[in-house]
Amino acid sequence: MRVLLIGSGGREHALAATLARSPHLTALFIAPGNPGTAKHGVNVAIGAENVPALITFAKEQAIDLIVPGPEAPLVAGLADACAKAEIACAGPTRAAARLEGSKSFTKEICYAAGIPTAQGERFTSVDAALTYIQERGAPIVVKADGLAAGKGVVVAQTLAEAEDAVHDMMTQGSMGDAGRSVVIEDCLVGEEVSLFAFCSGETATLIGAAQDHKRIGDGDTGPNTGGMGAVSPPRGFDRAAQEQALDVMVRPMLKEMVRRGTPFRGVIFAGLMLTDAGPQLIEYNVRFGDPEAQALLLRLTSDLLPALKALADGQLDATPITFSDQASISVVMAAQGYPGKALTGVVISGIADANALKDVTVFQAGTAKNAAGELVVAGGRVLSVCAVGNTVQEARDKAYAGVKAISWDGAQWRTDIGARAL
Predict the structure, then answer these.
(1) What's the pTM value of the predicted model, to 2 decimals?
(2) Which EC number(s) does the record attach to this protein (predicted)?
């Protein structure tokens, strides 16, 4: 099978490594990819959101399956363009991708389908948003309505912090067009987990679960990021609880999407808060998470490629999705300045030393090669240093041994990834 994987992050490196193990794979192209993905296939210099160029390349190379990594090309209509060109795509249509592309649309679906979620409203007026904040009180959550690369959420502990978030997004344009309208909702309290499933029509098959660490600093302090690390499986959310969550959080949504004439087909990533009153939906994403995918795919023992092809064909693979009983940890190493303006161009050393450690795998994200052929920092989240172990503690110790083997000026990472799972 000839496959085109879309994206350039750590998730795509993990997907490339996983797909490369499949006996069904005959050729793997990654657009645009990164220096890490180049070890598993052929990088193609086409941007992830350049849908026309991606389709042209897929036709020229007789691609059998397109696997979208990030959300932006799906929201831009990648799957729709694939359908028109008669190319299989393991992702949802533009209309179905609104589940991630619009926070207010997700709220609308939740209310219609009876899915437990925080009370909230959408605002296009700054004054109305500020009035609502005063009425609801703090803590309260302010979300950019559109796509913001995982950074468009402020969990405000005070009214002043919530008001600043509204002004930053709506007046100052800190999130661009994504923040021209905002969703403001009550703050949920509990453990946050990520649930993944293959979905087609009204049917969902469980993939698995992980727990992300969103904030930049230890102890969940500082601003939200795209994710600073993950552990799989999460504590207190076993297979039975995951199946039950599918019944409450995913399958009713699928039925509502079918009822509206926009059926969902692809990977659903449901962000959940495990509250004292039961699971509550935080958000839907329409693809694998990053860095959750890195931790989750390390434990995968079944073949991912046939499952993705079946999904693209509007079916769910009858072969069970299986994982090892081991625990896995993913620790993100980020550039100086992230989640703000990242310091780039700095030479990275030690990745080979980390990869040489037992059970440690380093996935590249914000990396590039300089004129001298050296690996350098080229983005905010630079590497995902991952490890598996028989226990969370063992996986954690191995992952941080990998982190210690790697260095560059200004590197930052959290030291407590997986600590809550202990």
Answers:
(1) 0.92
(2) 6.3.4.13
